[in-house]
Amino acid sequence: MKWSIKYSYNDSQNRTSIYGEWHKFREENGLEVGDVCVFEMMTKVEPHSFKIYIIRVRQESSSSYPHQFQESESPNRQTNNQFELLITESKLKTPTRVRIPRSFICRNERCVGKDVTFKVGKESWIVKVLNSGSFCKGWIQFARECKLVVGDICYFELTDPTNFVFHVSISKEEHRS
Q1: 107 shares its domain with 166
Q2: In degrees rounded to 5, what are phi and psi of residue 156?
Q3: Phi, psi for residue 159 in degrees, rounded to 5
Q4: Which PROSITE patterns does this one have (predicted)?
Q5: Whether residues 88 and 165 fall in one domain
Q6: Average pLDDT of 87-94?
Q7: Has residue 67 been placed in a domain?
Q8: Mean pLDDT across the stretch 129-134?
Q9: What is the pLDDT of residue 34?
Q10: When comparing pLDDT for 127 and 79, which is higher?
Q11: I need a labelling partner for 6 at 20 to 30 A (CA). Which of 21, 43, 99, 119 fits?
Q12: pLDDT, mean of residues 17-32
């Protein structure tokens, strides 16, 4: 489906505003307070085209996979030690640098320049965090072994800030469709 949504970016406030048919998009997709929309830019020339992923605040499935967040750990309620990444095509190519949200890096500067550990269940991977605030060495191995595909969402929680250990939960795209 297509909607003609307009946006503007205020560089001084680092803020984007959405308007136009946004209300129509919101209503037709049943967005609720707490839902998260992730915009993946599909074209670099104007008019821009975006693929939009909706992460619902409510989880309707009772299965244990993908990970079902409890109220206290909802991915839509970011804390100082949590962030999420939508997997895009560029995050699956080698060589790659996967940017960590700046707000997380500002709150957790000790991770910068370090090797961190990703834990998914009993498995773990060592991944380097560059000084620029990006994952690099070890990321592709993690992505391949977790069978990440475009549209998956990884939820990262820094559970051991002293040893730089992240618990990672993966919401598989095919389970959300």
Answers
A1: yes
A2: -105, 130
A3: -90, -20
A4: B3
A5: yes
A6: 87
A7: no
A8: 90
A9: 74
A10: 127
A11: 99
A12: 81
Q: Where are the beta strands (DSSP E) in the chain?
A: 5-10, 15-20, 36-41, 50-55, 82-86, 98-99, 115-120, 123-128, 134-135, 153-160, 165-171
Non-local (6+) Cβ contacts of 158 within 8 A are: 81, 82, 108, 111, 164, 165, 166
Q: Is the pLDDT of residue 17 over 50?
A: yes
| 101, 39: one domain | no
| CA dist., res. 107 & res. 79, Å (int) | 10
Question: What pairing do the DSSP bridges indicate for beta strands 123-128 and 115-120?
Answer: antiparallel
Model pTM score: 0.57
Residue 91 to residue 158: CA distance in whole angstroms: 20
Average pLDDT estimate for 60-86: 51
- 129, 135 in Cβ contact below 8 A? yes
Mean pLDDT, all residues of the chain: 79
Same domain for 161 and 120?
yes
Residue 149, domain CATH: 2.40.330.10
Query: 50 or 99, which is more confident?
Result: 99
Torsion sign across C-alpha atoms 10, 15, 16, 19: negative
With beta carbons less than 8 A apart as the criterion, state whether 10 and 18 touch. Answer: no
Q: Are residues 162 and 93 in the same domain?
A: yes
Does residue 68 sit within a domain?
A: no
Residue 41's domain comprises 5-55
Q: Are 88 and 163 found together in one domain?
A: yes
